[in-house]
Amino acid sequence: MQMDPTPPSLAKLRALFEKQERLSMEAALQVIHKAHDVMDKEPNVLSLDAPVVVFGDIHGQFFDLMKLLDKCHFFQPSFVNSDQTLLFLGDYVDRGAFSCEVMLFLLCMKIHYPTRVFLLRGNHECEAISSFYGFRFECKSKYGLSVYYHFTQCFQALPLAAVVSSPEGRVFCVHAGLSPSLETLADIDALNRRQEPTTSGALCDLLWSDPVPEYEDEEDTPSPPPPRMLEHRNSIEPDTLKWRPNNVRGCSFYYNCTAVYDFLTRNDLICMVRAHELQDEGYLFHFSSPAYGPLDTRPMKDFPPVITVFSAANYCDSYRNMAAYLVIQKTSNRFDVEQTRAVPHPFPQSFRNQSEGIWATFQATLPYIPASRDFFEEMARLNHVPSPDAPESEKSDDDKSSGSGTIGLKLDEWGKEKGSPGKHALRRRNSSEKHPAALSKALDAITNEWTTAVATNQLSHNDTTTMAASGTPPTTTTTAEHGPSKERLAMFTAREIDMLKLIFALMDVDGDLKLGEDEIARFIQRILGETVSEKKAKRYLQALDCNHDGHVDLNDLLSCAAMLKTRYKSMQALTAWATALRWSTTAAFFVLLYAFNKRFGKQHRWLKQTSMLAVLLWLYAHHWRRRPRDVISRQ
After folding, report:
1. Where is this region: Disordered (predicted)?
2. How many domains does the chain divide into?
């Protein structure tokens, strides 16, 4: 059957996706292929003219994307006759629950407006990252793996940068930043973008680098940004090292103000607009302190040298940040920032299918880990974490699947708590996610250390863990009387360790190798399809903290799994012993019965018949006495 060559209208596509309905697989592939053909002909560095609306990370937040497009009047008839251009800086997928919808809608926008809508590549637009942070799971659930791999081919057609010409000068736009191996725009244009990025090199740097942190606490708990666009903050001394390793990301570099000034001056640019980093207010201006003035070599210094734009409001349904986009006007001296808050969105209907598939994968390798919240409840019992005093009210599956619920903090509650922009003190750890390759190395190191400690019985909480696995309270009397336990925690196969690392990585949203209450709640919501209260999330976090050091890391998850596996193997051994005892008893019964019949059966025929009837009744009763228990255990 021949496919319709006309792509779906944007209005119909929006209505379809807002109802959580899908395109057919054929229609989705048609959109992907058409957009790929258009973008594949574009250069690495686009040349655009103001006015341009610049958007940062979207991360699968379809309903927030619609609000942003409404705000910039994209759906109004006036847009068709205007000269406004839309530029997206990458990171369209992962994290959010509607990555397929975001990607298909943006590609359809590109098809309808090939010279008005432009999409750059972000670090998530590749197979290595999108298969690790959620897009592959989502796409497999909604359209199948074949469509996912067509998406990854389309990612390689995305341009890498853009230069916007405005009355004040030229603005460089890119997803992340600069590279020590790229001195000119011509160097960027000469790159081969049609490939999977590696963990080093120029392509990696454009997608992964960051401006060096300017303030002493910026990497951990950033202070609220200024309420006005060009208000200065007191800064520490400018970093004098142009390039230094980006240890937070695990790849690429940090670039300082001198690296930025050199690149901008060499290429006749006035500033750089980038995305890649979450910001409380949706935007941030870098290197704008008076301390940088003597180092600034730009002829025109009216604009900050680096502007970060982030367009995913309430990122991961957890961070309560605002979204923003930047408008580069064609009138003189005008860069406008527009901000929005998150909008409510329905509970994703795809979560249930995704969660069932993911958890089935877990249990195929880790049969001793209970499905759903039972895992956390069981660890709370084994580690003797008390239940919350007050009962919690939770949404039922019916409520969540009806589409009427929202994820995370409700916006009316958020408004009361947050107040006016800039007044809310956001509690956040580092939100810059690691490259999966770097994260895997860090997790491997932790796993090897844990395995060695268990093998040599060096875990400080080994006795407590062993006793918890057997259900014995970890009292000082027990330890004093019996000394160090000789029972070892169960060890894991390589496949089991890989699966446990995957579970931890799915929990660890911000990539800091430690879990928080919000990450536990989000994991239960995204992977298990259930909603828990803040109090219950705190209890579950305590339940996983096996060494009681105040935080949960991979060591704790490994210890939890080892406790469950130890108990699982003990129960298997007990079951095997009970089975052997039952069959040995049965064998003894038949031997005695045979001997009895041999001795008295010939003399008393009725006794032989009675014995045979007793055997049949015993077998019948034994079978039906065990059957309900077997059925229950299978359920």
Report:
1. 214-234, 384-438, 464-484
2. 3
